[in-house]
Amino acid sequence: MSASPETPVETPDRSAFPEPSVVVVRNPADDTVVGTVPDMTATEVADLAARLRAAQPAWEALGPEGRKVHLLRWLDWIVDNKEHILGLVHREAGKSWGDAQIELLVAVEVINYYAKNGARFLADETPSPHNVSAITKRLRLIRRPYQLVGIITPWNYPLAMPMMDVPGALMAGAAVMTKPSEVTPLAWAEVVRGWNEEIGAPPVLGLASGLGPTGAAVVDEVDMVQFTGSTATGRRIGVRAAERLIPASLELGGKDAMVVLADADLDRAVDGAVWGGLFNAGQSCIAVERVYVEAPVYDEFVERLVNAVDRIRVGHDAQGSFDADYGAMANEQQMGIVERQVADALERGARALTGGRRLAKGLFFPPTVLVDVDHSMLAMTEETFGPLLPVMKVADEDEAVRLANDSPYGLAGSIWTSDAERGLRVGRRIETGGMNVNNAMTNVFQFPLPMGGWKSSGLGHRFGGAYGIRKYCRQQAFVSERVHLKKEIHWYPNTRRKAQVTDKALRLLGMHDWRRRLGRAAK
Q1: Active site annotation includes 197
Q2: Is there a single domain that holds both residue 270 and residue 353?
Q3: Alpha carbons 378 and 62: distance in angstroms, whole number
Q4: Which H helix or E strand runs over 60?
Q5: How far is CA 119 from the centre of its chain?
Q6: Are residues 274 and 162 in the same domain?
Q7: pTM score
Q8: 388/371 Cα distance (integer angstroms)
Q9: In this structure, are 187 and 110 located in the same domain?
Q10: Which CATH number covers residue 177?
């Protein structure tokens, strides 16, 4: 119905109905707007949590085989829409098209792994009684999911980062509230929309988009939190989780060391350094961030490394073109960290054999090899998260190990040698949650193994093997009776006779009196 000219239409007071706040997402390669997402308030996060909790019991009741059906449908939908989803990754993160492709691989591999193994990982366990005094008991270990899990992920892999966590939590039977980085939320928002609107799945996967206060609200609403990001933020989340008495799994910063021993295959080691240090513009928690090379092969390694780095193409290529190797830095703040570390190294006597200065347009930093470096320099001690390869000469493997361990971080690392036993021996001495011999970053993609850090690189393990599902579950110790007895011997009333029987049983079965008697008899 329209208003007549005689009846003026009142203009509502807009201050009473403020416009919803949004986060604008820009492509760091060219500063174009890619999209927006809501900046959700704590009240909106609480409402979302209530809806997810309401849907969780039915989701848990489906069992692992029922949940598997929905996860595989989700995977099919993601693959069918990969060009659109990866296009969002490509633009919101400023990635090269080739680097964006890896994110689909992670989604495929993680969902398939937990769909295949989820029922086995979640099956009840029936341990044997610990001694004959408990032989009348039937023991069972039951796993029940936390009702609502919060998963907070960073900006460097918009699709892959949540995909490392969410399938395991869903397969466990939990409802999941995700909070992607405000820098790169668009691809994940589309994937969550696909779950809720395209495949007929129960509404147990939610998106809480927004800035820092939104993430804090998520931590305040969930029953368990998985966080991946900076060590500083991880500490704050860990403190808040402790205050709420909820578990927190934290995968935090890294400063991964690459140790090149004199017997290494230098061609492979150089290619590994380029891949491990420069993939995704070095913006990986497990990137090679410092290189220690034994003196006999140092000069040759550096020469080959510079030649290889000079062939790397930096830029934001067109979707589907594969004309660049790596793309932009995620934001100006990250660019500033890289610039500060390079400037510090040069002021302290290091030399940049390649790169060393940001490109004129966009947030691009060329691959940079630094030499004459030492541990007085930020590039060797602070997390970089950028395309720097500082290379340091060491006298032998002992010095390499000492320097590799001279760090507050311990996420992963690598040893390069032609001797498998030497690689194992040296790798065992380095204090990291993951270690690779003659490869870089590959431990993360070996899903039967746990992925997590030591020292300031984390708390717990992020995923891998049965733990990748079981971490989202509470354990219930379940005891029932094998034999129907009227009473247990230790129940009231207390009597001298029961005490004597108990004492004799303990001496025979628990205090090893029979062994001592046999020993005396043998003498």
Answers
A1: no
A2: yes
A3: 52
A4: helix 42-61
A5: 23
A6: no
A7: 0.92
A8: 11
A9: yes
A10: 3.40.605.10
Which pLDDT tens digit goes with each residue over 245-277? 999 999 999 999 999 999 999 999 999 999 999
Asked whether residue 3 is domain-assigned, the answer is no
Choose the catalytic residue: 92, 251, 289, 382: 251
Query: Which H, E and C letters describe 145-211, residue by residue?
Result: ECCEEEEECCCCCCCHHHHCCHHHHHHHCCEEEEECCCCCCHHHHHHHHHHHHCCCCCCCEEECCCC
- 3-class state of residue 415 by DSSP: strand
Spans in the chain with pLDDT lower than 50: 1-18
Give the helix, strand, coil percentages of the chain, each rounded to 5.
Answer: 45, 20, 40
Which residue is listed with tokens 């174009």? 32
C-alpha–C-alpha distance, residues 418 and 405, integer Å? 22
The answer to whether residues 325 and 278 touch, using CB atoms and an 8 Å cutoff, is yes
What is the rounded distance in angstroms from the CA atom of residue 461 to the CA atom of residue 471? Answer: 9
One of 285, 289, 382, 397 is an active-site residue; which one?
Answer: 285
What span, in angstroms and rounded, lies between the C-alpha atoms of 100 and 54?
35
DSSP label at residue 219: H
Q: What is the pLDDT of residue 485?
A: 84
CA distance 278 to 488: 66
- As separate numbers, helices (DSSP H) first and strands (DSSP E) second, the chain gives 18, 19
User: What pLDDT is stored for residue 16 in this prediction?
Assistant: 42
Q: How far apart are CA 354 and CA 379, in angstroms?
A: 15
pLDDT of residue 516: 66
How far apart (Å, rounded) are the C-alpha atoms in residues 382 and 373? 13
Q: DSSP character for 281? A: G
440 and 351 in one domain?
yes
Catalytic-residue membership of 285: yes
pLDDT, position 10: 35
pLDDT of residue 3: 38
Q: For the chain, what is the domain count?
A: 2
Residue 280 confidence (pLDDT): 98
